[in-house]
Amino acid sequence: MAATTTTSAVYINVIEDVINKVREEFLQSGVDEGVLSQLQALWEHKMMECGAICGPIERSSLPKQPGPGGSAITPVHDLNVPYEGPEEYETPTADMLFPPTPLQTPIQTPLPGTSEHSMYHLPTPSDYPTPQDSGGVPEVKPGRPSPYMDFFVVPSGKRKREDFPPQVPGSGYIPQQDGAGDATYDVFQSELAHKEIIGPLPHLYIWLYPYQGVASEDYNTVNTPAGHELHAGTPAVVAPIEAGDDDDDEPPLNENDDDDLDDVEGEEPNTQHLVLAQFDKVTRTKSRWKCTLKDGIMHINSKDILFTKQNFLGHRRSPERTHSILPTDEAEAREVNALWFMFLIAGLGIRGWMVVHTRRAFLGHT
Amino acid sequence: MATFELYRRSTIGMCLTETLDEMVSNGTLSPEIAIQVLVQFDKSMTEALENQVKSKVSVKGHLHTYRFCDNVWTFILQDAVFKNEECQETVGRVKIVACDSKLLTQ
């Protein structure tokens, strides 16, 4: 399982909270509520696909459950009754895609031809990316009868866009894919791209705290453009820094400061392991860093872990002690080389001593 | 209420962003309302972490890179060991991005 149960529960709560709180804005903007449940379904589906939440999702208030008794959608329909199918056009929620109840009792594979699910049968039956590879969707068992799978797993990752037909409310409005619609989309795209660019600034090293050689440093002076709302991803313009006023002993940064590791991996090594958090305190004592973080999300070894408090200790390797970061065998090799060199010097010395003494002895004799 | 956009880079945030992106390109959602959803996510995620999460983690590792820019600390740790009540994880390289918690309380 890629997500711990607590993480999964918190994620589900967050999704629900977001959906509930934007509902009013949706209604105010005249957006159909079906769009909201479509958003929720897609979001949950993606979360399940990447294993961040483990279904089935139990909700306190299920949005719209067809059928009496509040049980999950029943896959069997009585075909003798004229079909008034709100379900067919209903936005699929993740519960419908991955129903919780019938999992323990998988239905028998129906005989061909008499299948009651044939009305739901899709032309592309086996086009389902198996999410159990990620281990995150435990309810999709490999041994499940295939018609069952075809029915429930309609919007797979490959054809998600086509599978959710745009919501057509009563007014008959059909969203326009070309023309004016593109313009608004472009705005959104560039907005996102903009955020991407100004988020992390890889090469902008700013030494707000010039190195003073003191034993300990505290990095917790609030240095904030206060007053207005601040967003982490959209940082305010950095105030001009008095570079050069300080008579620092340290030379300014130059290309010699670059780490060879950085050169290899581009401007910033791409790490899949990521911790996103808020910091309370960052202190440094010589090469020893101590940080107190809180309210964070970690993505470590493809697991999502949430935490309320995190202490981290980091040791900065000083460049003088480069030998310590050599792999052991390389360090050993150097030592061996040094040993040989000493022998060489010693050998030369002995020879020189012998040469001198033999000459002396020779001269002494004559 | 001030919010951080930081958590949008998490799994749940990325999934939401992808979803909104698809729905906006479908024409199902307007970009404005999609951004409102993201802002609400920032709030909800921050609240959830404050109120619903209790676990504590400690990390030790070699600090490869540190950076403090625009009130955001970025650290890259090598050979980091994460420990919490349940488990211990070791990673060769981890990136830590942290915003100033004081900004939220201001």
UniProtKB/TrEMBL annotation, chain A:
Residues 108-146, 240-269 are annotated as: Disordered. Coiled coil: none annotated. InterPro entries: TFIIA_asu/bsu (IPR004855), TFIIA_b-brl (IPR009088). Residues 243-268 have a biased composition (Acidic residues). One of its GO terms (biological process) is transcription initiation at RNA polymerase II promoter. It holds the Pfam family TFIIA. It comes from the Eukaryota. CDD domains: TFIIA_alpha_beta_like. Keywords: Nucleus, Transcription. GO terms for cellular component: transcription factor TFIIA complex. Belongs to the TFIIA subunit 1 family. PANTHER family: TRANSCRIPTION INITIATION FACTOR IIA SUBUNIT 1 (PTHR12694). This is Uncharacterized protein. It comes from Stephania yunnanensis.
From TrEMBL, chain B:
It is found in: Nucleus. It holds the Pfam family TFIIA_gamma_N. It comes from the Eukaryota. One of its GO terms (cellular component) is transcription factor TFIIA complex. This is Transcription initiation factor IIA subunit 2. GO terms for biological process: transcription initiation at RNA polymerase II promoter. Belongs to the TFIIA subunit 2 family. Residues 60-101 form the Transcription initiation factor IIA gamma subunit C-terminal domain. Signal peptide: none annotated. InterPro entries: TFIIA_a-hlx, TFIIA_b-brl, TFIIA_gsu, TFIIA_gsu_C, TFIIA_gsu_N. Residues 4-49 form the Transcription initiation factor IIA gamma subunit N-terminal domain. Keywords: Nucleus, Transcription, Transcription regulation. TFIIA is a heterodimer of the large unprocessed subunit 1 and a small subunit gamma. It was originally believed to be a heterotrimer of an alpha, a beta and a gamma subunit. TFIIA is a component of the transcription machinery of RNA polymerase II and plays an important role in transcriptional activation.
